[in-house]
Structures are given as C-alpha cells and as structure tokens.
Write a structure and sequence with these properties.
This protein is an alpha/beta fold. Helices cover 31% and strands 23% of the residues. The radius of gyration is 18 Å and the shape is globular.
C-alpha cells in the first residue's frame, strides 16, 4: 500500500445548523453548533487515515493549535511536517448549514496563508507510487511547486482545485487526477454551468485538459470520470441517503479516492468507493465527525444501503 502525503490547510471549524440560510441583513437562530477540526488539507488527511492509509500532512498552524494537532494524531495523521507559525493564528472557518444540508462557508486563512515553498519537504514522494493530494486553500506558488515536485519524483498527483482559480497547462500536465466539483470545472473551462448530468458529461467530453484524468463531483448525482485515453465519460451515481450536512463530503471524496488509489484500485473503482464514502459523510453533522471508517464503509448492510 502506497503512503499518502497531503499538502493543504488546517482550520478551526465553527458549524452552525439553521432551518434556512440567512439572506443579506437577516439574523437567524442556530439550532445546533459544533466546533471541530477542518480545512481541506486536514479533512482530506483524516478521511484517508480513517480508511486505513498511512497519511502525512504538510501544513501550517498557529500557536493555538495544540488541541487540533492532538486530534489529528489521534486520527492517525503524521503531523511532523506541520509547522507552527508564531505570528499567526490557525485558520478559521464559519460554516452555516440549512435543513436540507446545503451550506455557506466563510474562511479566514490565518496561518494557512503563510505556508510557503520552503515548508515543502524536499522529498514529497518517499516511495514509488506515493499519492500526493493537494488543494487550493494555500498559496498558488505552493500548490504549483507541490504538484511539479511530486510529479518529478514519480508520485501520483491528485489535485482538488477548490476554491476555484486559474491553473496553467504546465501544472495541469503534471496532475494525474484532477478533482473539481461542477462549479470549479465551469470556472476552469470558462463555460456555462450544465443543468443535468448528461450536460456535465458532454462538457467534460469536450474539455481539452492536459491531466491524465478528471473526476467531477456532482453532489447527490455522484461523480463523472473521464480518462485522457478515453473519449467518453463514466457516470458513477450516488446512493440515495438522508443528507443532514454536506460539509466535508467533498473532502471525504478526495481522501477516499486517494486511499483507494494507494491500495492499487483502478480509477473507476476508486471513484465508486469515493462516492459511497462522501454519501456516508453527508448523513452526519460536521466535516470530520461524519467521515467513515473502513469497517463502516465496507460492512455488507451499509454497502448495500449506500
């Protein structure tokens, strides 16, 4: 089994559940509150670790992060490459979730904004085939160097381009699996947003992206996969679940995808498992608290219902 290195953000999450998302100028009362560990880097690291992968996290936190680091260690995440920034506080995310599971998120990057290229280990890839998972909640130059260094060292590069921002072809060409959601794909391509799964598949089939494969997450509609050697797409539908909170579902998808690839799964099988993991995560509250463990995801009764 190949190890996984995650390069990304760490946040303190404050999650408020409300009946309906507030409009501009409106004050609403929360029905439920959860504080926990978040940030795309930390979330994806925990998601993969819970499924059994050895995971190393490269990130920055503030001096207020002792409890956060303890939580990550308890989840099985190696935090030796997480640097403590004496000048900044840990990033903060304020998350508001409505009764249908939809959410809005406001993030103060904090120490995440100070993660720089010097924080990247010289050996991002320590063994052949290691998965390197990167997201966009850190500086563009750090993302670029992490992707290019991992590619040069023979790693399998998975990039989650969230939040959306431009990527040049040199970086994309070094990516093995690009994992945008539909909005991020539209932003990357400068296209109109599809209104159906069929339209999303058609858009992806027309896209001329130089990475080896693209996996577009579609929320309750599952995911669509296109590999560079294929002219058609594969739609992996999501199981029907009672969604409570979709916060962290996308990160669960990325972590589960990386875990499956690290175990040697082909990309279609890895996407199918990631869809099931993300669906499971949407049935609980909070980002990390609802992420599945391997025995939960693989139990026959659970697998058949998801």
């Amino acid at each position: 089994m190949s190890p996984i290195t995650v390069v990304g953000s760490v946040n303190r999450d404050f999650v408020l559940t409300v009946a309906d998302l507030p409009h501009a100028g409106e004050t609403v009362l929360a029905q439920h509150f959860v504080e926990g560990v978040g940030g795309k880097g930390a979330n994806q690291a925990v998601a993969a670790a819970r499924l059994g992968s050895p995971v190393r996290l490269v990130a920055r936190v503030g001096t207020d992060a002792d409890a956060i680091l303890d939580t990550l260690v308890s989840e099985g995440v190696d935090v030796e490459a997480v640097r403590t920034d004496e000048r900044a506080t840990t990033g903060i995310a304020a998350v508001v979730v409505d009764g249908s599971g939809e959410n809005t998120i406001v993030v103060n990057p904090g120490a995440n904004a100070d993660l720089d290229v010097d924080d990247l280990p010289d050996r991002l890839v320590r063994s052949a085939g290691e998965i390197v998972l990167v997201q966009h909640e850190i500086a563009p130059e750090v993302v670029e160097l992490a992707v290019l260094r991992a590619h040069e060292q023979g790693g399998v590069v998975v990039l989650n381009p969230a939040p959306a921002r431009p990527l040049d072809d040199r970086v994309l060409a070094a990516v093995d699996v690009l994992v945008p959601n539909l909005g991020e794909l539209v932003s990357l391509l400068g296209a109109d947003r599809p209104t159906s799964v069929d339209e999303a598949r058609a858009l992806l089939e027309r896209a001329a992206l130089p990475c080896r494969a693209v996996v577009v997450t579609l929320g309750a509609d599952g995911a669509v996969l296109k590999e560079a050697h294929d002219t058609t797409t594969l739609h992996v539908p999501a199981p029907t679940v009672d969604a409570i909170d979709t916060v962290g579902a996308g990160d669960t998808f990325c972590g589960a995808l990386a875990d499956a690839l690290a175990r040697g799964s082909g990309l279609p099988a890895a996407v199918e498992r990631a869809v099931r993991a993300a669906s499971h995560a949407a049935t609980g509250r909070g980002a990390q608290t609802s992420m599945p463990y391997a025995d939960q995801l693989d139990a026959p009764a659970v697998a058949s219902s998801l």
